[in-house]
Amino acid sequence: MAEITIPCVCPVPGAHTEDTIYLPDTLGFTALAQLVMSARWYSADTDDMAKLLAHLQEAYLLYTLSGWTLVDAEGKPLPLTEANVRTYLMANPSVAFDVADAADDLYGAAVVRPLVNRAKPSSLRGQTAGSTSARRRRGPRNPKPRLRSLTTTTPTAATG
Prior knowledge:
Elements: E1 2-7, E2 18-23, H1 29-45, H2 49-63, E3 67-68, H3 82-89, H4 93-119
Antiparallel strand pairs: 1-2, 2-3
Helix pairs in contact: 1-2, 1-4, 2-4
């Protein structure tokens, strides 16, 4: 289990000087699927890579934490919920970045692999046995119809 030490972000100032965030060494299927599907869904709505990466950072905070040492006003452990992650951890951007970066270091390859595999073309690389494209006809595309003269010409005295 990875432990990330952060400055105290508890609701009571001075409860202690540091908190610890716990991340599992590996993600289970559900947490990994949440990250991958979240990134896949979000990437369908935007071509902006910065926005996609920011969304993934948020997803790391919401789906990968396995525990923390934050306490409430009475000194009791603060439950690890999405609301509390947003209120106490994400409200402190520098702390949130540190935790999200640690999660990315641990899980980034596992999250990106399914996304890359899905983006790969389904056909194998290389030449095919024959052309799969429609064959081009030789010559002009739309030849003009040839007009036949309906009149005949006969030489006259002037033309000779």
